[in-house]
Amino acid sequence: MSCTPVAGPPKPDGTRSSFATLRRLRPVGLLLPAWLVAAQASELVRAHRGMVASESALATQVGVQVLQEGGTAVDAAVATAFALAVTCPAAGNLGGGGFLLHRAASGKAVAYDFREVAPAAADAWMFVTNGAYDVTRHHHSHRAVGVPGTVAGLHLAWRDHGRLPWRRLVEPAIKLAATGFPVSEELARSLTDALPKLRRSTAAYQQFTRSGIPYAPGEILQQPDLAATLERIARRGPAGFYRGEVAQRLAREMTAGDGLITQADLREYRALRREPVRGTYREFEVLSMPPPSSGGTVLVLMLNLLEELDLARNGRDSAATIHLVAEAMRLGFAERARWLGDPDFNPDLPLERLLSKEHAARLRATIQPDRASPSSLAAVAGEAESRQTTHLSVVDAARNAVALTYTLEESYGSGLMAPGTGFLLNNEMGDFNPAPGLTTTNGLIGTAPNLAAPRKRMLSSMTPTILVKDHQPVLVLGSPGGRTIINTVLLTILNVVDFGLDLETALATPRFHHQWFPDRILCERGAFSTETIAALRALGHRLEEYPYPQGAVGAIRVDPGTGRLEGLFDPRAPDGAAAGW
Ligand code: GLY
User: Fold this and answer.
1) CATH number of 274-386+461-569
2) What's the whole-model pTM score?
3) Which of 431, 450, 465 gets mutated to test ligand 1 (max ligand atoms within 8 A of its CB)?
4) Distance CA 352, CA 374 (A)
5) What residue ranges of the chain are covered by domains with CATH 1.10.246.130?
6) How many CB atoms lie within 10 A of CB 390?
7) Which of 13, 351, 477, 553 is the most exposed place for a label (fewest CB within 10 A)?
8) What residue's CA is closest to ligand 1, atom 2?
């Protein structure tokens, strides 16, 4: 566990909130203030003024302090994201990209797109060597690195909605990187697992080992090069990253490794504002991420498919319910493969149709209650994407809400680090389709909308989402998990809306995933009873158990009656925590 909770004083309503001492994880210079209501992963936190939930208790603490100083939800999200880049190096990042969904208390919503882009020299055949698909080049080479978007995206959101000075938001991350923080058990395990990947880059290997020896829990991890890069960003904003020394070092690393990113690619990177995807599900409005993420579109499509079905009747665990949900997943992912990619390169992307109730009704009519429909290549698929992405949710005192998901693609991204920069580079180019026409039942997709092209954004599954009721945000959530993200968010919403589960149970219940191809339901260990498995098999479903958990949801729930906030980070992520004030 990431921190040591100490029971807080009983609250008037008898809730189980606790004051976490964060004793083992508290870095030098970060004192825990008395007003902080915090917990470790899987502990529900209740507060009134504001809440942050992230995959790192230290980063959550940074975010709540920003809220307490009068920062907005965006201020807190930016500070938390920078802190995660230090404390959660597998997924928190400067060298990756992501999406931030903001809903102001006024109801106005905007989606910030800071997805990586392909360098100017990219093309659709760049992952084919001697006529064959080159999986190493696609996922594990300098060519797998996309132009990072995180710094530009955080800055754009802050320019629009920030209140505290930029430097104030970067400073806690600088401190965490410079003075260091104690390595948790989870981080020690993760860094040890990552050693083979990190060995590819001398700079990364030096930063994340003690001269080749893995960090043990409790040892202090200092990252001076990362602190220096963060200092440049604090001083110069995005120019401290996209221009000058950091950009020069990054471009040099690319040249040395036969990568494609140039200083011009970095200089010309732009984060974008986009119109969020909007849908309705039962009495809720759903706001989520538009393309180039497939997340919001596929989520709304699946919710539309399920809305006319009485899921609650048979119960959450029944084969009948799981069958219907899996069929909706199958259809949603087939549509994803067929249509979705960077909207700026796909002018015919039929977004309105994909989000319409009519389209969902047509698809729903193909679902058979007593038989699994086989996935068909006539529609088109994907190997499981990496689970290493991270999500944070924030709600502030005014009830502005932020759902932010960002990623390096795989755990520790490409494992590459330009000497002297202190941050890992993504391998997000792996989210482009491998090659034109290369679609297989094993899950490769070769459809045109998501083929690599100069300055194009690769398709994502990240699904930062806000549910609204009566003009108030009621649930803010998201998750890591590659393609499983969309289904993790879907299942969490169904748990809350259809099955009436409290937040703790909604996040703890086992998850499952269907993504059209490979044609099978993946499920967490122990997700289904023996009878349910037999019944699903009788319907024609193939089932496989995951060797690992599905997703790590960070969620904040707002009680529409009292306005009280409940925050929780997924029990699957031991270092995560929600905290409020
Ligand atoms: N790299 C994971 C995603 O963008 O969905």
Assistant:
1) 1.10.246.130
2) 0.93
3) 431
4) 27
5) 274-386+461-569
6) 30
7) 13
8) 482
